[in-house]
Amino acid sequence: MRRKSDIIVRGIINLCALISVLILVGILGYVFVRGIRTVTPSFLLNETSVLNGTTGIAGNILNTLFVIVITLLFAVPIGIGSAIYLNEYAKPGKLVRMIEFTTETLSGIPSIIFGLFGFIFFGSVLKLGYSILTGSLTMTLMVLPLITRNTQEALKTVPDSYRTGALGMGAEKWYMIRTILLPASMPGIITGIILAIGRIVGESAALLFTAGSGYALPKTAAAFFDKIFQSGGTMTIQMYLSMQNGEYEIAFGIAVVLLILVLLINFLTHYLSSKFDVSKKK
């Protein structure tokens, strides 16, 4: 016979889980009801133009993709390389503890401080101004701890027998890392990268200080690449500006697009993690 305390605790736990689900469903439902009518093909494929009488976020979507790609080009190699050094090459000691403490501290700094630093250093000192590149370099600093820590934890889950077995057979250390450790820890690495993408997509404060709010689409192939050095507002920045101007339908429409994108990122995380999970393939 169950004790009353167990029944009470289980009821409280179930109630907490139900509240969490209801909060999520409530937020999703409210945003979708308010904004789904705004999300049309023209809204997604056009840019806002007073002369043409069009309203759209195509330029903001392109800017968001630019920031994601450029940020990952910088953050992924540095983050994975740092994790490999900390876990496989560095000897445990004060240096490793200091680097790990610095990484954890970096992940806790408010995003607006990153934006202020990015504006001063990348925008003013390096003279990049308000540009997608300035925003991407700032976002690199923000997502580096996320990628580094996820990769490091993923490497720690690989059994030591993999390392000793490969080294015992005469394999060089880098060959062992490249062919055994990295494939075995790929689910955790991919999870860190996709979570970083989610952080980039949802960021607004830091990018508002660094990337600006431009939304024009490039007209030529040359202008497409020059866009990197120009002001470019992401979807979150445009949503903030729309709310500030009282354009609530546009803001909720962008919110719907962002929610769909975040949900796709979460589904993609679960799919890729299971696909690259070596333990499930055995």
Describe the structure.
The protein is mostly helical. Helix content is 76%, strand content 2%. It contains 14 helices and two strands. Strands 1-2 form a two-stranded antiparallel sheet. Helix 4 crosses helix 6 (132-156). The protein is globular and about 70 Å long. The model has no long low-confidence stretch (mean pLDDT 86).
List the helices and strands and how they pair.
Blueprint: H1 4-35, H2 41-45, E1 47-49, E2 54-57, H3 58-89, H4 94-107, H5 111-125, H6 132-156, H7 160-168, H8 173-184, H9 186-202, H10 205-210, H11 221-226, H12 235-244, H13 248-275, H14 278-281
Antiparallel strand pairs: 1-2
Helix pairs in contact: 1-13, 3-6, 3-9, 4-6, 5-6, 6-9, 7-8, 9-13, 12-13
